[in-house]
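Researcher: Good morning. I'm working through a list of sequences from a screen, and I'd like to move beyond sequence-only analysis. For each chain I'm collecting a predicted structure so we can compare shapes side by side. This is the next one on the list. No need for commentary yet; just the structure.
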Amino acid sequence: MDASGFRAMKREERSYRRSLKNAALGIVAILPMMLGIVGLVGIFRAFITREMLASLFTGHAVHDTLIGTLAGMIAVGQALVSYVLGGELLGQGVSLYAVAAFILAWVTLGVVQLPLEAEVFGIRFMLLRNLLAFLFTIVTAVASVWSAQWLT
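Model: Good morning. Structure tokens for this chain:
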């Protein structure tokens, strides 16, 4: 290897180390807020039971879709957990509209992570993304139920 190749390799190594350092500093800066989100999710899970969620739904499509979206937005979590919870809600007689909206909102929306999202991506982006996600959650839930009813 000649001297110019060696210098280029050293320059790339410094650039790589600088990028790695910046990424680590970014993670450290966000870590307190991420820990706060984890804590809030734990608190929501402790205080919002499955029975409380089932008592919110009336059987009316529009009402259940809106309540399902709002409940899923508040009780954020992992997708796998939402499927199990959705099955439990269906078993307790909650409408498919509510369960579909709940699962979609559970995964795509979340009040808990709004501060982190606003800090990382900006308030305008956070508001626009969540407004669109809210609207499309309702549309997708209704379309899913209609298509499921059409297929059966």
